[in-house]
Amino acid sequence: MDFLHNRPRMMLSALCLTGMAMLAPGVPATAQDAPLLNGCSTYVDRTADDADRTLSWDYAIETNPERCIKIRVGQTVTFDGDLKSHPIDAQGGNAANPFKGAESSTPTFSFDKAGVFGFVCIYHEEMQGAVWVVG
Ligand SMILES: [Cu+2]
Predict the structure, then answer these.
(1) Which domain holds residue 80?
(2) What CATH number is given to the structural domain containing 121?
(3) What is the per-residue pLDDT across 53-80, written as a single tens digit (0 to 9) for each?
């Protein structure tokens, strides 16, 4: 009888341990699953300190794998191209998108929060992509 009485408590302990493992401290969800945004599902990894984080910003970006780029918090992405002909704006993803309202003001964007941030050319919707920022 005592054995049966103790069983629910043992099961509860097992559930608690499972829950703690799932919360894995220090690993944000964004570091695990590539986000789907603006046709991006796989991302070129440019998280290394010496990686090239400059995109050729012209019509060819439509088929350039670099339009889906993965970086780390604190890194920047530079758009090398004619920002007057191809002004940049935000398109989807997490809030506080650095591309929001950018237009042709700056070619270099800083990312100080983890998440995914979509971008698009205001004149050509096929020019779009996403920056996946991991912690
Ligand atoms: Cu354009």
Answers:
(1) 29-134
(2) 2.60.40.420
(3) 999 999 999 999 999 999 999 999 999 9
Question: How many domains would you assign to the chain?
Answer: 1
Distance 127 CA to ligand 1 centre (A): 6
Residue 126 within any structural domain of the chain: yes
Distance CA 94, CA 15 (A): 32
Between the CA of 39 and the centroid of ligand 1 the distance, in Å, is 17
How far is Cα 73 from Cα 135, in angstroms, rounded to an integer? 5
Helix locations, 24-109, DSSP H: none
What distance in Å separates the CA atoms of residue 89 and residue 24, rounded to the nearest whole number?
Answer: 35
* Residue 103 Cα to ligand 1 middle (Å): 11
pTM above 0.70, yes or no: yes
Ligand 1 centroid–CA 95 distance in Å is 23
From the CA of 32, how far away is ligand 1's center (Å)?
32
- Identify whether 8 is part of a domain: no
